[in-house]
Structure formats: structure tokens, C-alpha cells
Amino acid sequence: MKKIVKNFNILIKKTIFKVQNKTNNNFKISIFNKHLIALIGLLFFYLFYLLIPLLYDKTWVQTNIESKLQDEFKINFSSSADISYRILPAPHFLIKDSKILLEEDEKQKSIAEIKDLKVFLGQGNFIDKEKLSIKEIIIEEANFILLRNDLKIIKKFKRKKFSNKKIKINNSNIFFKDNLGEIISIINIDNTTLFFDVEKKINLFNLMGKIFNVPFTLNYKSQHGLDVYEEIYFNFKSLNLNIFNKSQNNNNFISGDSIISFFNSTINTKYDIKEKLIIFESNKSRVNNAQVNYKGELSINPFDLGLEIYLNNQSISKFFNINLVLIEFIKSGLLFNDNISINTSTTISSTSKNEIFQNAKINFNIFNGKINLNKTKLINDDIGSLELSNSNLFIINNQLIFNSDILINIKNPDRIFSLLNTSKTSRKVFKNISINLNYNFFNNQIEFDNVKIDDKDVNIELLRIIEGFKNNDLNNFNKSRRLLNELLKVYAG
């Protein structure tokens, strides 16, 4: 800063000496030189004016800045004594190692540690320090640590009117933890802007960042009045996923619309929230250009979900193609929670001629930390049905295992024989097959146990043939048809 002032002094002296030499030689000062001298003089005095905050007492600055941040932004900052003043890119105080404090049960706790807090100043009056004003603040390289209980306080904060002066957050992280201190998720913040738009009279919050290393943008706005109106928009470009939600709060009764779009699918939901109960239903939703209907109720505390889904003209076989992301999510153990209760049923109808089953009702239930698919039923209109019971989805040795009893009821054996091209000598009449299945999602292996046909145990030879289905990676229709014909051939009937 001293070097800048010194360079200005040298420039002024050179200019004055030039003017003096010209005056001594009876030359008049040109209009250009007069303007140049005036401009240099103004720049010098402006620079001197900008440097006035250097004279402020640092203790006064620390106390005054904290007070103004509390009054104008409704945020309780705890700043350190490491404060410096800079004029570039604009006049501001740089405060090292600050914290954001949160009031909880009449106590204060830190929810953010900030490496650099930049407080940019309005240039209206530096001479009278009591009239010092804040233009905007920039938070850089901060770590926000939020527990589940902290979200209630943040929810109250976002419903208040923001300051019309911007808060910017760059190159920071948000750590979400459960109340035991375990990290649930991390959001990496590239840049964030938070302020109240005076012209539109709305709160605005825009964020660009990453979650689980997936880039996303978040745009939030809310308008306050008798009814509280909010809009939230998430965009995950790399996943081709968009989430939009708008809601209106009237006397603690919230109604809204949520739209989730991905690839060729759009999930549009209308919902109402009263106290801790959410009632929702579909509104012209489509998955892969096929209509989807659903309705349900969700209780927040404790978490209790009841959901009914109806899918028309959908592939039933593809419904069971579980991707790796879902498997990893289940393996995370979040669903194996005693405080979670889920009862969902998905009814599917298919008109495809390539499908083995034309109708299905698939149940997914969670109760007391256990997951089951009990009473799931697949129906072939011509042949019969398959139903699951005593099922259990669990994790053992970091591997996801599904175990279930399966009952296959045969309505028309002749249709099976026709489908499998079974020879007439191998055609034996039977009404049902029961079997216990154990499926390992990790290695895609199937184990069979307790196999019965018409309530009779099968012999060793039949069990040996059934073992041919063990490696699910090799299973296909031709192989299944061959093995089933072998079963029918050795079955005594």
C-alpha cells in the first residue's frame, strides 16, 4: 500500500516539474495537462480516502463488524483478531479463522469454521467510522457441520426475509451428520449466493456444487406474505435428472406439486402436508412414455410410508433388473432401521408377447429393521401363478442376500408342456411346486432347498438337475427349457 502512495507522489512531482519548466520558459499550461493534474490529484485523494479504514482500531472493527453482521444478516459470526484491510478488488476487511455460532438451548455452538471471511464495505463515509456500512460478504474455504436437529433451525431461517446484501460462499463443504456424529453425506460447494431481491420481493438462494461426486445446481426462491410460497429446483446434468418442487404454506397447511424428470420419464406428484402427515398422489406421471398412477401416505416421525403404484404396459421382467446403485444403497444399511416402516405394493400389467408373466403385484415391506417381499405374486393368465412368502432381504459378510419360500400354482399344465416343447412321454400332471430360494446379489448365485412337487419331496436326481440353475449369469430361456424338460422326464409323477 505504501508503495502505491509513493508511486503516486513520484508521478505528481514529475508532472509538477514539467509544468514548472514550461512556465519558466514562458509556455502556457495546456488544458490536457490541467485535466491530468486534476485527475491525478483526485486519484491521490481517493486512494487516501480508501486507506482511512487502516486507521481504525482493530478491536473496534472486530466488535463493530460482528454486530453489523448480526443485525443485517441475522447470522452470529465469531471473528478472530486476525483482521487485515485491503482495497482490491474492492475495499474490504479480511478476517481469518471465523466461526458461525448457533443458539441451542440457551447455549452457543459452532456450525461452521471459516478460513477467510471477506466483509466488503460501502464507500459512502469512511471518515466517520460510526457510519461504516457493509455491502456484501464472501465466505471462502469453510466447513459447515450440521446435525439433524440443526435442520429445524435452518428451516426457520430460510422462511425469514434474507438481507438484500449478498452472502457468497465459495470452495466450501457441508458435512451432514446424524445425532451420534457419524457423517451421512458431504456436499462440496463451488459457489453459492444468498440474498433478498428487493424488486421481485423474494428470497433467492443459488448453489453449484457436488454430492457423492455428482455435480448439481440448486435454485431456491420464496415469497413471503399471508401465504408462504417456495420453489426449489435441482439439476443433475450428468444424470439427466431434474427435480422441481413448488409449495404454498397457509396456516401450517402445505399444498404443493413436485416434478421429477429423468430421461423419458416424468413423475408428477400433488401433495398436502398437515402437521407430520403427507398425503400424495400422481398427476399425469409417465415412465418411458407409459402412464403411472400412485397414491400414498407418509408420516415423518416416526418414518412410516404406505404406497400403492399402478403401472400399465410395463415390462415385468425389467422390473427385476436391479442396478448396482440400488444394491449399494441397500447395503449401506440405512433401510435396516427399527424406526422405519414401509409398505409398498406395485401392480403391473403387460401386453408384451415376450413376457412370461402378464400381471404382477410386487410388495416391498420394511418393519422392525427387516425387509421382505411377502405376498408378491406373478401371474401368467394361461399357466398359473408364482407367490413369495417368508421372505427376507439381509446383509451378511457385506453381501446382500435374498431368501424366500416360493409357491408355484399350475392352472393348466398343458400350456407349460406347449411352451417347453415337452415330449408326450415326459408330460406328467402336477398342481404345485414349492421351493426355498437363496439368492446372492454379490456373485449372482442361486441356491435351492426344500423342493416339493404336490407337497412331496423330490429325489436326489431332481435336486441335481435343479442345481443347474445355480449360476444365474448363465440362465436364459433355452437353458431353462432344457433343464425343466429334464426335470419332467425324471419326475415320477
Q: Level of helix content? A: 10-25%
CA-based gyration radius: 35 Å
The shape is elongated
Q: Quickly count the helices.
A: 9
| Overall pLDDT confidence | 85
Contiguous uncertain segments of 5+ residues: none
Q: Which structural class best describes the helix and strand composition?
A: alpha+beta
- The end-to-end span amounts to 100 Å
The number of distinct β-strands equals 26
Classify the beta-strand content into a percent band.
Answer: over 45%
Largest sheet: 26 strands, mixed
Q: Can you walk me through this structure?
A:
- The chain is an alpha+beta fold and 493 residues long.
- Among the domains are: 2-50; 55-212, no CATH class.
- It has helices at 2-24, 31-50, 58-73, 150-158, 316-319, 324-331, 413-420, 460-466, 477-490; strands spanning 76-78, 83-86, 92-104, 107-121, 134-147, 167-177, 183-197, 202-211, 214-223, 228-236, 241-250, 253-262, 265-274, 277-282, 285-287, 290-299, 303-312, 340-349, 359-367, 370-372, 377-380, 384-396, 399-410, 432-440, 445-453, 456-457.
- The protein has a 26-stranded mixed beta sheet that branches.
- Strand 3 (92-104) and strand 4 (107-121) form a beta hairpin.
- Helix 1 packs antiparallel against helix 2 (31-50) and helix 8 packs antiparallel against helix 9 (477-490).
- The longest helix has 23 residues, at 2-24.
- The radius of gyration is 35 Å and the shape is elongated.
- The mean pLDDT is 85.
